[in-house]
């Protein structure tokens, strides 16, 4: 069984007419009665899914549920210039809920109004935000390039333990 056929953020006009299977977190859901719009987010970006609820059964879906959608890529009548995938959408033919989620304590979007304390407590959720993922990818690319460069010069990477004294506030524990 194929889990996904393409990543959400890679869909473009050249993909119109293709039957695809995508997976991701529900970023936003809008129910307009006979039509349900879902913004589906994965590590590459967001794609809009449109489902005609009179044609297929739409399961109960909320933000941060992980779902799998099968459907056909179609060209939007009005493009969204704010999204890389803004010219296309998926006309959903089948929706499967892979994982349910409680309402998150912070908004998982480019910007959030959550306090730093909440963001640190729920770091695993904060790291889903697009700008945080961009920072992680940049750091990983820099680290990889540095290691490859030094490896080509026959350097040997050795890890040494870092000894620190724990403090009552726990600040050093994050080092």
Overview of the structural elements:
This protein has 175 residues and is of the alpha+beta class. It has helices at 116-121, 123-126, 130-152, and strands spanning 19-31, 35-42, 45-52, 66-75, 88-99. Strands 1-2-3-5-4 form a five-stranded mixed barrel. Strand 2 and strand 3 form a beta hairpin. The N and C termini lie far apart (43 Å).
Largest sheet: 5 strands, mixed, barrel
Name the helix and strand elements from N-terminus to C-terminus, one letter apiece. EEEEEHHH
Secondary structural class: alpha+beta
Poorly predicted sequence stretches spanning 5 or more consecutive residues:
none
| Beta-strand content bin | 25-35%
Order of strands across the widest beta sheet?
1-2-3-5-4
Residue-averaged pLDDT: 89
Choose one word for the global shape.
globular
Number of helices: 3
State the end-to-end distance: 43 Å
Q: Which bin fits the share of residues in helices?
A: 10-25%
Evaluate the radius of gyration: 21 Å
Q: Could you tell me the number of beta strands?
A: 5
Compact description:
This protein has three helices and five strands. By secondary structure, the chain is α+β, with helices and mostly antiparallel strands. The relative contact order is 0.13.
Helices and strands in order, then pairings?
Blueprint (H helix, E strand, L loop, with lengths): L18 E13 L3 E8 L2 E8 L13 E10 L12 E12 L16 H6 L1 H4 L3 H23 L23
Parallel strand pairs: 3-5
Antiparallel strand pairs: 1-2, 1-4, 2-3, 4-5
